[in-house]
Amino acid sequence: MLEEITEIAAALRSGDLTAEDLLERSLERIADRDPALNSFVALDEAQARQAARDSDALLERGEPRSPLEGIPLSIKDNILVKGLPATWGARGLSGFVPERDELPVERLRRSGAVILGKTNVPELTLEGYTTNDLFGTTRNPWNPDLTPGGSSGGAAAGVAAGLVPAAIGTDGGGSIRRPACHTGLVGWKPSTGHIPRLWGFPSILTDFEVVGTLTRTVADARLLDAAMTGPDARDRRSLCAAPAPWGSAKRRILYISRIGDAPVDRDVAAATARFAQDLERAGAEVVPVSGKIPFNIDAANRVWRVVSRAGVVYLMRWRNGDLDPTAGASIQAMAEDGRTITGADYIEALEEVAALRLELAELFSTYDMVLTPSAAALPWPAGTPYPDVIDGQPAGPRDHAIFTGWVNIAGLPAINLPVAVSQNGMPIGVQLVAGFGRDEELLAYAKTAAPPALHLPYDGD
C-alpha cells in the first residue's frame, strides 16, 4: 500500500497509478475512517477531481509540473484556500469563504498538488489539543480515546490514518512538531521567512508562526518544502540571506533532556536518550547539557503569554468584533488576561525576543543543532486541554509543550522525527533544531538520521 509521496509520485509517473484513482482512494478512506477521527472539516471534491484530471493529462504527456503532480494534500483550517471555508475553528468565522489562496497554497497548486480539503484546529489555533465548538474534537488514529495534540491535530490525524499522503499545517509554538510526535509523523517547521506568506489571517503571534508540513518521511517534507519556499518581495521576511553552510562534516549537537524541574514522561526520556546514542554512534558529537540550559527559557514563557494574549484581544476587535460574542470559554479567558497587558508590556516582550534571539545565535555558533524531546508527555484524553500529570508529577497547561515554544520565538528551523513507540503503544518523537536559515542543512541531516517511518497498521487497504 503506497503511503509516501516519493513512492506515489513514482507510480504516477510510470502509469501504474492515476491521479484520479489516487484521489478516489483518499475520498473513500475519508468516508470510511474519518467519522471516528474528525480530522477533516471541509472537502472540495469537485475542484479536486478537476485538478486530478488535469494532472493525469500532464502525466500522460510526460510533462509533470513537479514531483507533487497529482498528490492530494490537506490544508489546515487557519490557512486560506479559495472557495473553501476558513473558520480558524471559530464560530464567528463560520461563514467566511476567501476569494483567493494564501501564497503557500497558490504555490502548491502551481506545482500540481491536488488540494482536497481543510483540517480541524482548536479555536484560533492557540491550544495544544484539537477541539472547537464548530466541529468538535479530533482524535488520534493510534488510539481514538486520545488526542493527536494541537493545533495541527486534524492535519496530523489525517496523514497518520492514511487519508492523505501529507498535510500542510502551521507552527506557532510547536503546533506541527507535537502533533507529529503524537501520531508518528515527520513534522517540519522552517525558519521564519523560509516559506513566505501573503493573504492570510492576521499574524497574531507576530513572526513566530510559520507554514510547515506533516509527512511520513523527511524526503516527503523536502519535496513539499521545495514547492513552497523561495523569496517574495511582498513578504520581506523571506528576503533574509541564508548563512553559509556548516563548515565540517562532524555535527556538534547540544542534547537537552529536560528543562529545569519540569517533568518528562519516562518513555519519552528513554527514547530520546537512545536516539542521542544513535547519533553519537553515527559520528555526531553529542554534548549533554550540564546544569542550567544556556538560554533564557523563562523569558520565552513570558513572551509567549504576552504576545498570544495580546493577539487574542486584537482578534476580539477584528472584523467589527464578530468573534467576541461567539468565542469559546478558553478564548474568552485568554482575552480577559490579554486586557491586563499594556503597550509597555508588549514592547518589553519584544525586547526579550531580541535578547533570546541573540543568545541562540551565539549558541548556534558553537553547536550545529540542539536535540530535545518534541513533547514532554504522551498523548492524553482527546477532550482534555492538557495532561495535568506527567511522569507522576503535577503539570500545568504548557508543561507538555515546554520543548517547542522557544524555537518559534527565536524563528529557528526544527523537525520532529518519530523514533519509538511507548509501552502503551503510542508514538514518541524527538526534536532537532538548527540555527536560523539552516533549513536545508537540517533537512539533509534529518534524512540521514531518521529511523524507518512508523506506520499505523490497518485491516485491508
Q: Can you give a write-up of this model?
A:
- 36% of the residues lie in helices and 15% in strands.
- It has helices at 5-14, 19-33, 45-60, 103-110, 153-160, 177-183, 218-228, 266-281, 297-321, 329-338, 343-363, 405-410, 439-449; strands at 40-43, 72-76, 114-119, 131-132, 136-137, 166-171, 186-189, 210-215, 252-255, 285-288, 369-373, 389-390, 393-394, 414-421, 427-434.
- By secondary structure, it is α/β, with parallel strands linked by helices.
- It has a domain at 5-232: Alpha-Beta Complex (Amidase signature (AS) enzymes).
- The protein is built from 13 helices and 15 strands.
- The N and C termini lie close together (7 Å).
- It is globular.
Layout of SSEs?
Elements: H1 5-14, H2 19-33, E1 40-43, H3 45-60, E2 72-76, H4 103-110, E3 114-119, E4 131-132, E5 136-137, H5 153-160, E6 166-171, H6 177-183, E7 186-189, E8 210-215, H7 218-228, E9 252-255, H8 266-281, E10 285-288, H9 297-321, H10 329-338, H11 343-363, E11 369-373, E12 389-390, E13 393-394, H12 405-410, E14 414-421, E15 427-434, H13 439-449
Parallel strand pairs: 2-3, 2-6, 9-10, 9-11
Antiparallel strand pairs: 1-3, 4-5, 6-8, 7-8, 7-14, 11-15, 12-13, 14-15
Helix pairs in contact: 2-3, 7-13, 9-10, 9-11
Task: Describe the structure in brief.
The chain has 461 residues and is α/β, with parallel strands linked by helices. It is built from 13 helices and 15 strands. Helix 9 (297-321) crosses helix 11 (343-363).
